[in-house]
Amino acid sequence: MSRPPTAAQRRLVEAADPVTGRLKGTPAQLAALVRHGLAFRHPRPPHDHFLTPAGHRIREAEPEAGPSGPPATAGGFAARAGGEETAPADGPARLREVRGAWQGMLELRRMTNPDGATDRPCGWERSHLVRAAALALEAAGHRPAGADPGDGGYRVRETPQPEAVAVYEPDGEALRACAATLERAGWQAGEYTEPRTRARYLLASPRRV
Questions:
Q1: How does the average pLDDT of the chain come out, rounded?
Q2: Which end of the chain is more exposed for a tag (fewer CB within 10 A), N or C?
């Protein structure tokens, strides 16, 4: 992109679907975003427009959550990675929101994976590993940890390894259940032990084939 987006273009970017990045606007508005490298037109009918990685970066430049959590997603939805100081209340509304976000993710896989596959992660998930893994876990009904370090529940964290996240869960059975959920969602997950703390955790990465 050669110059910053206009205020009108930023509004379109910020109004994109919080999970899939699907855009709505007039043909001229969408074409302008494509020219600026903020959007692309999907080659398959109905030829919807989606944010590019550059478009996602602009939308996610503001605001950020606390240090214990991942950046919030524009549009009000963010999957719970566990340990957030403030978190959305549990209940039917949150359940509907999470389920809708997961269905949107499956649609994004269908639209952006070259073969239209929905059984493995797409490019967006590979560039947002913590949020993608957390969404798969929360959508399957796993309980995220609270802010107290002693709380049970899962915590998804970045790792130094490329394309890998760590999933912590103090209950061994629940940790194995998290592994099964991630594998069903198209991830590879192996169980390991931290040498210093002896804590068990999962190392999970998106499956490519």
A1: 84
A2: C
